[in-house]
Design brief:
The chain has about 130 residues and is mostly helical. It contains three helices and two strands; from the N terminus they run H-E-E-H-H. Strand 1 (about 35) and strand 2 form a beta hairpin. The longest helix has about 45 residues, at about 85-130. Keywords: Membrane, Transmembrane, Transmembrane helix.
């Protein structure tokens, strides 16, 4: 009975690993940090990556489309009377739940850092104009 959940977990780990292999080098290469008292904070004035479309944004868009496809197929299967006893329904349930949450969290994170970057860029130009 749990074969679908097993394959869903394996797929989630593989996709998650691919995402981390893209995010970690991008973060180290493009995000500028300044040293604070106990930790490093992102310097939004010097970090312009959040104001551009990146490979991770494309990957997130593809992930959202994958989630929509999984949800649509799951809805079709449930409307045809299939139950959770089937392994493909279990697989789609796991994929839909996981990637919906991941996509939503990334969207909120991306929105937050983009707004912070816009504000930092605007404030830095105001300071330059005043000088």
């Amino acid at each position: 009975m749990n074969q679908g959940f097993f394959w869903s977990s394996m797929t989630t780990m593989i996709i998650g690993f691919v995402i981390l292999m893209i995010v970690i080098p991008m973060d180290r290469r493009y995000v500028v940090r300044k040293k604070e008292k106990y930790f490093k904070k992102i310097d939004y004035v010097k970090t312009t990556i959040y104001l551009k479309w990146t490979a991770f944004d494309t990957l997130t868009l593809l992930l959202a489309l994958y989630t929509i496809a999984c949800t649509s197929i799951l809805n079709y299967m449930i409307s045809k009377g299939m139950t959770i006893e089937r392994s493909d329904v279990q697989f789609l349930i796991g994929q839909t739940q996981t990637w919906t949450v991941v996509t939503l969290v990334y969207f909120l994170f991306r929105l937050t850092v983009t707004l912070k970057s816009i504000e930092a860029q605007r404030n830095s130009k105001e300071y330059e104009d005043d000088a």
